[in-house]
Fold this sequence. Notes:
Bound molecules: 5-O-phosphono-beta-D-ribofuranosylamine
Number of domains: 1
Strand content: 15-25%
CATH topology: Rossmann fold
Amino acid sequence: MRIAVLISGKGSNLSSVVEAQKAGQLGSATVEVVIADKHCSGLLVATNEGIPTVVADSDRNIVIEETLTQYGIELVVCAGFMRILPKQLVCDRDWQVINIHPSLLPLHPGLRAVEQALADGSTKTGCTVHYVDEFIDHGQTIAQVEVPIQESDTPETLHVRIQKEEHQLLPLVIKQLALRRQ
Ligand code: GRF
């Protein structure tokens, strides 16, 4: 299963997927290309592993579509990608699109999900991998992991614990999707 990973930031989730692939834990899934909407440190994760990168900083959606087609992509993984993909890139395509989000969706969609969970007095939050549709953080949930909130938590400490779970969950989901395709 040929994967493209879309990023905007530091790429720790990308790194977890690449490490899982190297460890033989990703089934038939392989990261073929990494696409970013701007120059960001996560691109180094890809270049260090010899994975092609594309920076789609102008004509973004056209470049993304051309790249996905060029690489024969079957699964698009949004891993900290801070742009909304238009409907024509996510619906009725040769590829499926998934996203990882740092909350227990449908709770706390959109930006600042970790802050939202702290602000509304939740006792737990977590992370969700879901299919992407044309709405923000909205498509069908594939898998979730809960993370308890501690009284002493700041957005930073809580996000660190959520990310630990993300780094386990995302490769696991990709492996399961790859198995289903076989
Ligand atoms: C993750 O917490 C993810 O849930 C959210 O953006 C963050 C990306 O982190 N969508 P990284 O760039 O993978 O480190």
